[in-house]
Write a structure and sequence with these properties.
The structure holds 2 protein chains of 2 kinds.
Chain A: E1 9-13, E2 18-23, E3 32-38, E4 45-50, E5 53-56, E6 61-64, E7 70-75, E8 84-91, E9 102-103, E10 107-112
Parallel strand pairs in A: 1-10
Antiparallel strand pairs in A: 2-7, 3-4, 3-8, 5-6, 6-7, 8-9, 8-10
Chain B: E1 4-7, E2 10-13, E3 19-25, E4 32-38, E5 45-51, E6 57-58, E7 67-73, E8 76-81, E9 90-97, E10 104-105, E11 109-113
The chains are: A mainly beta, B mainly beta.
Chain lengths: 113, 114
C-alpha cells in the first residue's frame, strides 16, 4: 500500500495561493494521485487527478515530479469557502490493479479573512 | 456529472439491531463500489470493495459477518451493519467508479448506535 503523508493543518489568508504537499514514497506504477476536498459531514469532492507532470483544471493545479514520490496541490487565490480538509489519495481504480486505495490523514486548511 | 446518493443520510439504532445503508449511482452504471468508514476528525478508511454480482472484498481487520455488503445491480450497493454496537457509530461513505480512474462519492450516512 502506498502510504501518504500530508501536513496536518495549514492557515492562509484570503486571496493567497495555497500549496499542499503529499508524500507517497512507495507509489506503484499503476497508481494515480487524486485530491479531494471534504467539508464536515459530507462526502469527499473530487478536485483534481494526475499521473505525472502537471495537471490544471478550473479550480486547482497538481504538480507531480518525475519520480512521483510526492505531489503538490495548488489552490490559487483561496477564499473562505475553501476552508475544508484536503485529502491526497493514491491508488488505482482502473480495474487493472487490486484497488489499493489509501487516503492520507488529510490537511485541514483554514482560510483567514 | 456523476451523482451518487446514500440513504438514509443519518440513522439512530439501538444496540444489537441491524441497519442497512443504500448507495446508488443515479446517472451511471458503477462496475465497482467502495465503502468507507470515517470516525470524527479522522481520515476515510476503506472497508470493502464490491463488484456487481460478486462477493465483496474486505480490507484487513474488517469483519465480513458484521458488515454485509450486497452489490445486486450496477446502480445499487448496500451495507448492512449487523448487531450494531456503540463502537460502530461512525460516518459511512460509499463511492462508485466505472474504470474512469475517478471515484464519485456519496454524501455519507451518519450512524449512531445507542
Amino acid at each position: 500500500l502506498a502510504k501518504t503523508t500530508q501536513p496536518i493543518s495549514m492557515d492562509s489568508y484570503e486571496g493567497q495561493e495555497v500549496n499542499i504537499t503529499c508524500s507517497h514514497n512507495n507509489i506503484a506504477t499503476n497508481d494515480y494521485i487524486t485530491w479531494y476536498q471534504q467539508f464536515p459531514s459530507q462526502g469527499p469532492r473530487f478536485i483534481i487527478q494526475g499521473y505525472k507532470t502537471k495537471v490544471t483544471n478550473e479550480v486547482a493545479s497538481l504538480f507531480i515530479p518525475a519520480d512521483r514520490k510526492s505531489s503538490t496541490l495548488s489552490l490559487p487565490r483561496v477564499s473562505l469557502s475553501d476552508t475544508a480538509v484536503y485529502y491526497c489519495l493514491v491508488g488505482d481504480v482502473s480495474g487493472a490493479g487490486s484497488y489499493q486505495l489509501t487516503f492520507g490523514k488529510g490537511t485541514k486548511l483554514s482560510v483567514i479573512p | 456529472g456523476a451523482v451518487v446518493s446514500q440513504h438514509p443520510s443519518w440513522v439512530i439504532c439501538k444496540s444489537g439491531t441491524s441497519v442497512k445503508i443504500e448507495c446508488r449511482s443515479l446517472d451511471f452504471q458503477a462496475t465497482t463500489m467502495f465503502w468507507y468508514r470515517q470516525f470524527p476528525k479522522q481520515s476515510l478508511m476503506l472497508m470493502a470493495t464490491s463488484n456487481e454480482g460478486s462477493k465483496a472484498t474486505y480490507e484487513q481487520g474488517v469483519e465480513k459477518d458484521k458488515f454485509l455488503i450486497n452489490h445486486a445491480s450496477l446502480t445499487l450497493s448496500t451495507l448492512t451493519v449487523t448487531s450494531a454496537h456503540p463502537e460502530d457509530s461512525s460516518f459511512y461513505i460509499c463511492s462508485a467508479t466505472t474504470f474512469g480512474y475517478e471515484q464519485y462519492f456519496g454524501p455519507g450516512t451518519r450512524l449512531t448506535v445507542t
